[in-house]
Design a protein that fits this description.
Blueprint lengths: L2 H13 L22 H25 L3 H6 L11 H9 L2 H32 L5 H13 L6 H11 L5 H25 L4 H8 L4 H12 L1 H17 L2 H6 L8 H9 L6 H33 L4
Helix pairs in contact: 1-9, 1-10, 2-14, 4-14, 5-8, 5-11, 5-13, 6-8, 8-11, 9-10, 11-14, 13-14
Length: 304
């Protein structure tokens, strides 16, 4: 068996949760007290109402008529108007907007993972001059507001032909979200012993094969976290999208909703329905990947 195969099997064994019970500790019995008392349950209920209450009101308003929203903005609808979602989907052109947002978000997530993964590997495993300077650059770049660069970006993108282009917007997102993803993946790589890669080098593996066959499988929770953070941020981003995208057929969902809301006499029931349609893909993706998202943050150890 080659050294690369041995390292990959060792990484899989390392990532697999152990079912053995530690010495001196028994398995927790079902139904035992976890320490959550009445005060803890009260705080959890308050936080749940605080987080979910606006969404419930938003849903109620999307199922009302405009007159009913004026009379009872917080109450449940007397007549559930599910056809509001169909009307909002058609009138706000949410289908094309969501498709554009998915293209932008997925491209942003993939590009950020590639850029941040290679940068983190180079910073932790290669003998690069001035590593501390690169760390300082990443920390400073994550703290600077994007508004500082809007004017020069507009000039450069117009000159390069990237203005009013989804690809031009994606390139900006790569630059904005890659520094945080690089710091996150770097913390994963620091926690991995270099002996795995040394064993693969003995077998003749190059740096690219080391990265794709050894490093990526061992830090995949970090890649999922970086992709989820970058993708959701790109999906919800508004300022850069409204600045660099003009054509109606290229607008992401956030701008499609904004344009629909800017009518002379907006129907707030339809606006609420369109807002829920826009939020649904992000909610579904986050719910499906929330465990991996939290796992990536906790395993990353950004303080390393």
């Amino acid at each position: 068996m080659s050294a690369v195969s041995e390292v990959r099997e060792s990484a899989a064994t390392r990532a697999r949760p152990s079912s053995a019970v530690r010495p001196g500790r028994g398995r927790r019995k079902v139904g035992t007290n976890t320490g959550t008392g009445p005060l803890g349950w009260f705080l959890l209920i308050v936080l749940a109402v605080y987080a979910g209450g606006p969404l419930v009101v938003f849903l109620f308003n999307s199922l009302k008529s405009p007159a009913e929203i004026s009379n009872s903005p917080l109450g449940a609808p007397t007549e559930w108007r599910w056809e509001n979602f169909i009307t909002a989907f058609q009138d706000a052109n949410m289908g094309q907007g969501i498709l554009n947002s998915l293209i932008i978000s997925v491209s942003t997530a993939v590009g950020v993972c590639v850029i941040a993964g290679l940068a983190a590997y180079a910073m932790t495993r290669l003998d690069l001059p001035g590593k501390n300077n690169w760390m300082l650059y990443l920390l400073v770049s994550t703290s600077l507001p994007i508004q500082m660069f809007l004017v020069p970006l507009l000039t450069w993108w117009s000159t390069l032909g990237l203005y009013n282009s989804q690809f031009g917007l994606i390139v900006i997102y790569w630059a904005i979200y890659s520094p945080f993803a690089t710091l996150l993946l770097r913390s994963f790589l620091i926690a991995i012993p270099p002996q795995y890669e040394e064993a693969a080098r003995i077998d003749g593996a190059g740096e690219f094969r080391l990265f794709t066959s050894i490093v990526v499988p061992m830090i995949w929770p970090g890649f999922i976290t970086a992709a989820l953070v970058a993708g959701l941020q790109a999906y919800n981003e508004f300022l850069l999208a409204v600045t660099f995208i003009q054509d109606a057929d290229r607008l992401p969902a956030s701008l499609a909703l904004y344009s629909f809301q800017q009518n002379l006499t907006p129907n707030w029931a339809l606006v609420s329905a369109a807002g829920l349609i826009m939020a649904l893909p992000a909610i579904v993706i986050f719910v499906l990947l929330q465990r991996r998202f939290i796992e990536g943050y906790t395993q990353g150890g950004m303080a390393n």
